[in-house]
Structures are given as C-alpha cells and as structure tokens.
Write a structure and sequence with these properties.
5-stranded antiparallel beta sheet; FAD-dependent oxidoreductase; FAD; FAD-bd; flavoprotein; 13 helices
Length: about 500
C-alpha cells in the first residue's frame, strides 16, 4: 500500500486542528480523524495564554479572536449586572493568577500587552474548524482509531466508523487525542508521572443564592476551594477529599450541589445543571514526543492540573512547533534530523508547567501548613521581580528554546517574537499568514535579504528601518539576530532551519 496522504492527525480538538493547519500551509497533505461526532461542548478552558493567541494570529484568526473576546466581555458584563461585582477595575490592573492568587500585576510585566486571550474552548475550536475548512482540510468524524502499524517508511492506521472499518497509510502520524490518547497507548510511549490526589469540577448551573458564593475569585476554605464567575452560572471547585472513583461517570446535579456545599460551606442549591466536567490532578509527561514516525502533541504528551489555561496553550504551541518542521521534511527541504528538535524544544517547557501546577496544588490544600506557604507566596508577590517572574512563568512569555547550534549568542535568540508593529505600521504576523519564515532586514542595501534570497525561497524578506535584523522561523522563534550590517551567522541559521 503506497502512502495516500502525508500525515494522519488523530484528534480534531484545538491542537489537532492547528497541527493540520500548519501542515497544510507547509504543503503537506493532512487527514484528521476524530472519534466524536461533533465538537465537544464540555466545560474546559475559559482562556489561553498570549503565546497561543499569537500562534493563531499568525494564521489569520485575528478577527475571530477579537469577536470571541467581545462575546466573553459581554458575558462578564452580564455577571457584573447580576451580582454587582465589578470586574473591570481589577482586570485593568491584574493579569492572571497563581494558585488563585490574582496578584500578577500588569505594571510589573516587561510586556503587559502580551496577555491571555479570554476565549473559551468551544469558541476556539469553532474558529480553528473554520480555518481548517477554508484550507480544504478533511476532518472525518466518528472515526475511532483501533490499530497502528509502523515501519521505517510509514504508518498504517486502522479505524472503525459508522460506514464500517477502514485504514490508510501515511508517512507520519500525530496523536492529538487527549490525556487518554489511543495513539500514545498503541505506540507504547512511556508516560511516567504522579497519581491523582484530588478532584476538580467545572460547571455551568443555576444556583438559588449566588450572592452567598461571593466575593468573585478563588475562595479557599477549610474544606477546599470554590469560585463563582466570572460569567453567569460558572462554578469551579477543588475537592481535596480524594480523586474521583469513576472519572468517566456522568456528573450529576446532586454531585455538583454536594461538592459546592462542602467546599463553600454555604447552604445553596443547584436548581439546574447545564454542563459539568470533572478531572483530577494526575501529572504525567512522555519521555519523548516522538517514536519513529509517530508524534504526540497536547494532552496526549502531557497532563497536569488546569491552572491558568496552561495546558491548552502548551498543546497549541506543540502544534505550532511541530507542524512546519514536519512539512519541511515532507517537502524534502530539510532532513528528518530536524524533527528531533521538537522534543528538545517542547519537553522542557512542559516540564516547567508540570512543576508550577504541582506547586499551585500544594499551596491550595486546606491544611494550615499549605496556608502558611500560600501567605508567604502572596507577600513575595509584592516584590516586582517576583511578580514579574511568576507572571512570565504563567503566561509563558519567558519561553526560550535552546538553539545550541546558533553561531550568534544573544538573549533574543530562541525566544518567540510578539506581534511587532513594523515601520510602515503593519503587523509582523500579517507577513506570516502563509506559514513561511520571515527576515526583518535592517541592513544597508538589504544585504541580509540578498543572502537569504540566494539560499532559499522559504523566507519572506521584509525591509525595516533602524535597529537589529531578525530571522524568524514559521513559529516566530527568533533564529538569528544581526546588529547593524553584520550578517555573521545568518548562513548557519538558514542551513539549520530552512535549507537542506
């Protein structure tokens, strides 16, 4: 059987859809297989981090993000009208939380404009689905993967669907199918970590006395943690009595009401339960994101506590990192050795997130020792340096890949560039919509552009005014920086990332 497509992506959630988009922009043929009949409407993330938002801006979703954020703002305004809790003043000053400590100040951050996007997961999936459809990407729903056979030159994937069983052969496979990943299990990826100790709940419900659940924000009690808002009916609870006996069992109105009463200590009733989900704090990370021709991205590769929307951001950036590299290999522009940089760059980022989520669980526990540590962290966050460190950690903007082969040493190299405004007033990301790399050339006579054009057509050259020149990979990672007319190291960076 010959390869009929280049890459099979398993999972049509945000991570799988973005991976397929990246592959398609890079010229690869992708097929997405999804077990569910329709996009999940389960209660999940209400936002994602700035780096994830920037990955979407680079792929033409600026208007869709703005529209979704406007809808979120309207919902928050409705919450304000319902409860009298004014969110606007606090939101103008603070930018996220650490373990429910909403003390990360905008004025302490180096770049306060790089902030989380208030877009819930169903809205995110909708905008990614629309972009995938516009690119002609085929998404086959109700296709559950049942078998994977790998060889040196390809992967054969089998499935069952309402139309019967089927199979396809591809050059590569990406598992984006969540924390219980079938791809991870069938391909025998090692997935070490820690077992769960508590249960998280998120729900949308009609409560008879919502005023008893104020103030807005995370409320830590002797029995757990609860939060009401910031949109009408939204509940978030941490139950420290242990992990769920059966996480797959339906979440009932009675269960949500019992946990809400226990964690809040308030006499409230849940009159109607609209949606609910539960999960635990098991924390795991694969040893490698690649086995042969199979890859993992998103929750298939890492699971952890859901604080700050970090998991969704991690997964989207996995897709942004892997997609263009895999497409370059498939085109024949780059050797397969490029793919090893996927694990090398993304796994340390996930390790750091797993560590900070474990720390957040530790200082949320209801015992006095955890409370004392929590109070100490809150006091430390009064210091600008500490506040900046925690803010950059939670938003991910301090991420820097270790581009060890770079001949030019500079703190900018390896960082992910924001959406800079160029000298002509345009946005940097608008020059990256087609998935190509970009050279921002400030050299006299455009010496850097001439060198790039002589080596590869895969980089768009943009003339800029005074300042340094930058070579950006398709994922906006800064691969090279040159000051003045010095282009030393540019050839090496081009060969490492763009020229076989």
């Amino acid at each position: 059987m010959t390869n009929s497509i280049d890459v099979v992506v398993v999972g049509a959630g945000p991570v799988g859809l973005l991976a397929a988009i990246e592959l398609t922009l890079g010229g690869a043929r992708a097929l997405v297989l999804e077990r569910l009949a329709s996009p999940s409407q389960a209660m999940k993330a209400l936002s994602f981090g700035p780096l994830a938002g920037e990955a979407l801006l680079r792929r033409g979703m600026r208007t869709a993000i703005d529209d979704a954020q406007q809808r979120s703002a309207q919902a928050m305004q409705a919450f304000t009208q319902q409860t009298g809790a004014d969110l606007s003043a606090r939101a103008s000053k603070f930018n996220g939380h650490f373990a429910g400590l909403s003390l990360i100040r905008r004025d302490a951050q180096v770049d306060p404009d790089r902030r989380p996007r208030h877009v819930d997961q169903p809205a995110l999936e909708a905008m990614l689905g629309a972009r995938a459809q516009a690119l002609g990407i085929e998404v086959r729903r109700e296709h559950e993967v049942t078998g994977i056979e790998t060889s040196d030159d390809g992967v054969e994937i089998s499935w069952v669907s309402p139309g019967g069983p089927g199979r396809v052969r591809a050059a590569f496979l990406i598992g984006c199918d969540g924390g219980r990943s079938t791809v991870r299990k069938l391909c025998d990826f090692a997935f070490p970590g820690t077992t769960p100790t508590l249960t998280f709940y998120q729900a949308t419900a009609d409560v008879d006395h919502p005023e008893r659940l104020l103030p807005i924000g995370w409320n830590r009690t002797e029995r757990g943690v609860f939060c009401y808002g910031p949109v009408p009916g939204r509940l978030f609870m941490l139950d420290f009595s242990g992990p769920p006996e059966d996480r797959q069992a339906p979440v009932t109105r009675e269960e949500i009401e019992a946990v809400l009463r226990r964690t809040s200590g308030q006499e409230v009733r849940v009159n109607v339960l609209h949606a609910a989900s539960r999960w635990a704090d098991n924390t795991r990370l694969v040893d490698s994101y690649q086995q042969g021709r199979g890859f993992l991205a998103g929750d298939a590769a890492h699971v952890h506590s859901p604080f700050g929307g970090q998991g969704l951001s991690l997964g989207l950036l996995d897709a942004a990192n892997l997609g263009w590299k895999l497409a370059a290999v498939i085109r024949g522009d780059m050797p397969e050795s490029l793919l090893a940089t996927y694990t090398a760059e993304r796994r340390p980022v996930a390790e750091a997130v797993l560590a900070n989520t474990r720390a957040q669980v530790a200082i949320l526990r209801p015992d006095p020792q955890s409370g004392a540590m929590r109070d100490l962290i809150a006091k430390l966050m009064d210091f600008d340096d500490v506040n900046r460190f925690i803010g950059e950690m939670m938003t991910g903007v301090s991420t820097r890949y270790d581009l060890v082969a770079s001949e030019v040493s500079h703190p900018d190299i390896g960082r992910l560039a924001g959406d800079w405004t160029l000298s002509d007033g345009s946005h940097l990301y608008d020059a990256m919509l087609d998935g190509r790399g970009v050279l921002l050339d400030a050299t006299q006579g455009q010496q850097a552009s001439q060198r790039v054009a002589s080596m590869t057509p895969g980089v768009r050259c943009v003339k800029v005014g005074d300042g340094p020149s930058f070579l950006l990979r398709p994922d906006a990672c800064i691969a090279w920086r040159g000051d003045g007319n010095n282009i030393d190291g540019l050839d090496s960076a081009l060969r490492r990332w763009f020229v076989s």
